[in-house]
Amino acid sequence: MQDDDCVGLREQKRRKTQRRIEDSATKLVDEHGFGAVTVEEICADAGISRRTFFNYFDSKASAVMGSPSREFAPELTEWFLTAPTDNVLELSLTLIATHVDDHYDRPEIHARRQRIAQDSEAAAESFARKRAKAKELRELIQKRLENNPGDKQDPRMSPRCEAALIASLLRESLWLVATGDFYSTDKTLTENLRHSAQIITSYAKGLAW
User: Fold this and answer.
1) What is the pLDDT of residue 1?
2) How large is the average pLDDT for residues 68-90?
């Protein structure tokens, strides 16, 4: 029990430090612009060292825009690859929502990020990072479809192509949520992502070529 308590306290401390860094990063960039703020200034405002900063985030963009560039947790990956489902899209949506949920649970931080996302430099950084995460997601979905051919929506399509379509849809859905265009504080992150994905797919059905 003591060991569990220690782990719990360490996790609380870790989350508190992470949130303090995000608060300082978003506050400073919201006030001065993405390009005008340095990691050193974020560290000074948060009362931490550069070493501590990089223990939590791999770049200024990660701290400012959220969703640190970390791999999916092993237990989350295992769940995704083995959980029974008749809807891989819904399973993938839940995976993403679980992975980034702690970056959307504070309205003030999220509001700052919505404003910051209008900055072209910040938007470019965020897009590059989301693209990298989408590649990781695509590879994971592809593995799921290869291991479970019955999960495929279209048997004529290769697992790689179907995985690319699902990952792309979720990447754009997450972008809409992140910029605030289709984000509601009355909904969970999963519900917001699902709503954004539904808007994209409904719009696509109406397109004529």
Assistant:
1) 45
2) 86
Residue 22 clears pLDDT 70, i.e. is over it: yes
User: Could you tell me what percentage of the chain is helix, strand and coil, using 3-state DSSP and rounding each to the nearest 5?
Assistant: 75, 0, 25
Q: In terms of domains, do 102 and 193 share one?
A: yes
Number of separate domains in the chain: 2
CA 199, 204, 205 angle in degrees (round to 5)? 100
Global pTM reads 0.70
Q: Tell me which residue has tokens 């430099």.
A: 121
72 and 146 assigned to the same domain: yes
Going through the chain in order, the beta strands assigned E by DSSP cover none
Q: Quick one: angle between helices 74-82 and 120-147, nearest 10? A: 50
Last-in-domain residue among 65, 81, 107: 65
Question: The domain containing residue 181 runs over which residues?
Answer: 68-208
Same domain, 61 and 108: no
148: enclosing H helix or E strand: none
Give the whole-angstrom CA distance, residue 61 versus residue 187: 26
> What is the 3-state secondary structure of 92-137?
HHHHHHHHHHHHCCCHHHHHHHHHHCCCHHHHHHHHHHHHHHHHHH
